[in-house]
Design a protein that fits this description.
This protein is of the alpha/beta class and 318 residues long. Helices cover 32% and strands 24% of the residues. It has a ten-stranded mixed beta sheet, sandwiched between helices. Strands 3-2-6-7 form a four-stranded mixed beta sheet. α1 packs across α7, α7 runs antiparallel to α8 and α8 crosses α9. The chain starts with a strand and ends with a strand.
């Protein structure tokens, strides 16, 4: 029986307030004049993955806890406007929200409101099973209470991916996700030895594939024990913001296995989509479409920049 959902996304629905600051760390002063202004918009990790999946012509469905508040209205409107089904679980504490401080070098610090959840929060297991039964894959964001959903997804027999973001390789909260997913994404930002961490995840967990994004240094792909480095894709326009680049990478990577591609080609999809996301201002939630992604990847693999402005060299075994 065919599934109605390609990717079920759990968690990571929320609102960001983006503040461009003169530098990080922020110089102490009584006040700062901020340009290009302060923007509040829906769009956190789960939202961006769902948007990316939908933009690539696949079918996403998003499950998360949402409050009856202004932030919740923004999240609901985003999903409604983009045609993404959203299953809401009431959150009395309010919808997730954060403040992103963005420096002139495009680095950022995210300040998350920790009052917007409770330790006792849980998704209804029957709801998870019902949604998982109709999905080809589940992507689990590391926001609470998604960890408790992992065993339910496993019982449902659906494949699972997760993004550990800037995990240091030690924090036990992230480790739960790392060891219970079939496909693991993470950033090298806080890792002293990315290759060792990637191999450790594969050795102790369920993952056959581990992908580490490394910003301007590209990405690393570990699949069936072979570690490969992929150089960064050249963005098609000036880089303005790295916010959402990792989520764009994950969405485009997931597009690959769901259309029958090998993990290396999936990683190329990710690098190209991540580079394109860096050209989108943080006040917007644009995502690369299937036609543009495939065109840019074709150009990348041909080794010609041309008018597409993207170039990716062949993978380099380590």
């Amino acid at each position: 029986m065919s599934k109605r959902t390609d990717v079920l996304v759990l968690g990571g629905a929320g609102v960001d307030t983006v503040v461009h600051v003169p530098g990080l760390p922020l110089p102490f002063a009584d006040s700062h004049m901020i340009r290009p202004g302060i923007v509040t918009r829906a769009g956190q990790s789960g939202d961006f993955v769902a948007l990316g999946i939908q933009a690539l012509g696949l079918r996403a469905h998003h499950l998360d806890m949402i409050g009856d508040d202004h932030e919740g209205d923004l999240v609901r409107a985003l999903h409604r406007d983009r045609g993404i089904p959203l299953t809401e679980v009431p959150q009395p504490c309010g919808t997730k929200r954060a403040v992103n401080l963005v420096g002139p070098d495009r680095r950022r610090i995210s300040l998350y409101d920790a009052t917007r959840s409770r330790d006792s929060d849980r998704f209804d297991e029957a709801t998870i099973r019902s949604l998982a039964a109709d999905a080809r894959h589940a992507h689990v964001v590391i926001t609470h209470p998604c960890a408790s959903a992992l065993p339910v997804l496993r019982e449902a027999g659906v494949s699972v991916s997760t993004d550990l973001h800037d995990w240091d390789g030690v924090d036990p909260y992230h480790e739960t996700f790392a060891l219970d997913a079939d496909l693991v994404f993470l950033s090298t930002a806080a890792l002293t030895d990315p290759a060792r961490t990637m191999r450790d995840i594969a050795a102790r967990g369920r993952a056959r594939t581990v992908v580490a994004t490394a910003g301007a240094d590209g990405a690393y792909l570990l699949h069936d024990g072979e570690l490969t480095h992929l150089p960064v894709a050249i963005p098609p326009a000036p880089v303005v913001d790295s916010n959402g680049a990792g989520d764009a990478f994950a969405s485009a990577f997931l597009f690959g296995p769901l259309t029958g591609e090998h993990p290396w080609r999936c990683a190329v999809y990710g690098t190209v989509a991540g580079a394109c996301a860096c050209t989108v201002p943080s006040r917007r939630t644009d995502a690369i479409g299937r036609e543009e992604l495939l065109a840019r990847v074709a150009t990348a693999e041909s080794g010609h920049r041309g008018n597409q402005g993207t170039c990716v060299r062949s993978p380099e075994p380590l």
